[in-house]
Amino acid sequence: MPDRRFVSQLAHNEPVQQVFLASEKLLRPNKNGNLYLQVDLSDRSGSINTRMWNASEDDYKAFENGDFVVVDGATQLFQGTMQLIANRIRRARPDEVCEADFMTLQSADVDRMRARLVEILAKIQTPPLQRLVKAFVDDQSFMDKFCLAPAGMKNHHAYKSGLLEHVVSLMELVLVVAPRYPQLDGDKLLVGAFLHDAAKVDELSYERDIAYTDEGQMLGHMIMAITMVDDKVREAIRKDGMPMPEKLITEIKHMIVSHHGEYEYGSSKLPMTLEAVALHHLDNLDAKLASFTQLIKDCPNADSPWTQYFTQIGRKLYKGAI
């Protein structure tokens, strides 16, 4: 096989013969009734929408979502977006797959961020919040999943260990911002940053491709996180026999259910405390910068200082001087 070209490196009208990770495959009819296969192919640099024309049921069944596949085809620029037209897709043999090609974050990065997460959480001074956080950090199964899970399906940090990267970045923001606003309780804000997306460890499945679990699809991570917090509160009380301030825990839960900031974005409540307002805006800042950075990175317009127009954000993005 030729030397690997990552998704972010692919140019218009470039022949492709290499391994990708397959997800979200569909068999669809075109306007003439002929079937075609649509699938997202990805590596550590991003994903590319792929079509195989005149496909059959056998082509569709030749691999599963989450499989590594070998693809023969060529790229083409269509309406400002790079796509791949496949002539052939088959399941890859183990000896054809280099796992490092599909890891956005390397193990050393993950270990470093995990240590930093624990280091920041150790700064919390409020005793009940210390106890709550300890119940999570001492749960090895939870922490292992927390350090492996993505932060989402598509929008931002949508890769393994993306949740850890997002949360550590957000907590670093809290350490900078909270001291500048004395009216904010920095400990509450740190715990909110830690737990706001914590239930994504169970909302999503991420052994190979990223998908929603049944529970994640039906409940969502904000509702699931409330159950997680309740469980850890009970666990903390069992360990030391001390009560947990109910109003304080309610404020932590409120930050979780309101952190998307608007009803139309999935929050069941609007932010009503200063910490909830701060968490929403800091979370949105980190997510938006990560998302827009990825859009710029994936832009196929290599010779232009501008990206193509993105319908999902209603604008082009300026990449800077070439």
From TrEMBL:
Domain HD/PDEase: start-end pairs: 159-297
SMART domains linked: HDc
GO biological process: rRNA 3'-end processing
PANTHER family from the UniProt entry: 3'-5' EXORIBONUCLEASE YHAM
SUPFAM superfamilies: HD-domain/PDEase-like
Highest taxon of the lineage: Bacteria
InterPro entries per record: HD/PDEase_dom (IPR003607), HD_domain (IPR006674), NA-bd_OB-fold (IPR012340), NA-bd_OB_tRNA (IPR004365), YhaM_exoribonuc/phosphodiest (IPR050798)
Organism per entry: Lacipirellula limnantheis
E.C. numbers: 3.1.-.-
Name of the protein: 3'-5' exoribonuclease YhaM
Transmembrane segments annotated in the record for this chain: none
Keyword Hydrolase: yes
Pfam family, one: tRNA_anti-codon
Gene Ontology terms, MF aspect: hydrolase activity; nucleic acid binding
Sorted UniProt keywords: Hydrolase
